[in-house]
């Protein structure tokens, strides 16, 4: 049986931080949930089979999406209720759950995520495309992901082919009104400037 990954049983402080997506709220903790650079995005309870914490959050009828990263949880709501009414309840739940060392994941997502990204970079592409893919991954990891995480989301590399980069937007970035603008004016311009082979950046996971 796989060893369950749990957060340390210690006093936990949590604060809520607004994101560019008005339907998403970022709950920042003083404890580590995942290794740096690793994140998981659950668009529904069925996808959250590996995370007892996320499954518990989906028991709140207004929770529509759960994103977990190194030291924060981004929750996207589905109802018209105001965050001012929801934050205290969610913050209390998260604090109690993590202080009680409730299981965060059944299996550590890190190895699986690393393998998936490596497979995406290599695949059946040519050696030149593989080198370009690795450049893109490095740029996304070093320059784009830290900024996106500040907004409660994440960006992952999916593929590169014929000058087109496909990325996946997660957490608050999925459904964010400004996601498309950020993708085109920020990320696409950066990659075009740093990797001349790139012609366009498109995204999956955008629900707007």
UniProtKB/TrEMBL annotation:
Q: Which GO terms are recorded in the biological process aspect for this UniProt protein?
A: iron-sulfur cluster assembly
What sequence ranges are listed for the domain Scaffold protein Nfu/NifU N-terminal? Answer: 14-101
Under the heading InterPro entries, the entry gives: FSCA_dom_sf (IPR034904), Nfu/NifU_N (IPR014824), Nfu/NifU_N_sf (IPR036498), NFU1-like (IPR035433), NIF_FeS_clus_asmbl_NifU_C (IPR001075)
Q: Which Pfam families does UniProt cross-reference here?
A: Nfu_N, NifU
Gene3D superfamilies for this protein? Fe-S cluster assembly (FSCA) (3.30.300.130), Scaffold protein Nfu/NifU, N-terminal domain (3.30.1370.70)
Source superkingdom: Bacteria
Q: Which SMART domains match?
A: Nfu_N (SM00932)
The molecular function GO annotations come to: iron ion binding; iron-sulfur cluster binding
> Would you identify the family this protein belongs to, as annotated?
Belongs to the NifU family.
Name of protein:
NifU family protein
Q: What organism is this sequence from? A: Hymenobacter telluris
Q: What is the lineage of its organism?
A: Bacteria, Pseudomonadati, Bacteroidota, Cytophagia, Cytophagales
């Amino acid at each position: 049986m796989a060893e369950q990954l749990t957060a340390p049983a210690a006093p936990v402080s949590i604060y809520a931080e607004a994101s560019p997506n008005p339907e998403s709220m970022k709950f920042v903790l003083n404890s580590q949930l995942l290794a740096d650079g690793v994140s998981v995005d659950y668009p529904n309870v069925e996808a959250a089979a590996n995370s007892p914490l996320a499954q518990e959050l989906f028991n709140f009828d207004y929770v529509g999406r759960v994103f977990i990263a190194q030291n924060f949880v981004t929750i996207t709501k589905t109802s018209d209720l105001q965050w001012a009414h929801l934050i205290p309840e969610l913050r209390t739940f998260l604090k109690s759950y993590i202080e009680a060392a409730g299981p965060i994941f059944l299996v550590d997502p890190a190895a699986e995520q690393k393998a998936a990204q490596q497979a995406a970079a290599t695949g059946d592409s040519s050696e030149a495309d593989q080198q370009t893919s690795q450049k893109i991954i490095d740029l996304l990891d070093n320059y784009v992901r830290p900024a996106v995480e500040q907004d409660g989301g994440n960006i992952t590399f999916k593929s590169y082919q014929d000058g087109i980069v496909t990325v996946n937007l997660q957490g608050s970035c999925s459904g964010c009104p400004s996601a498309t603008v950020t993708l085109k004016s920020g990320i696409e311009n950066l990659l075009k400037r740093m990797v001349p082979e790139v012609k366009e950046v498109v995204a999956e996971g955008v629900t707007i």
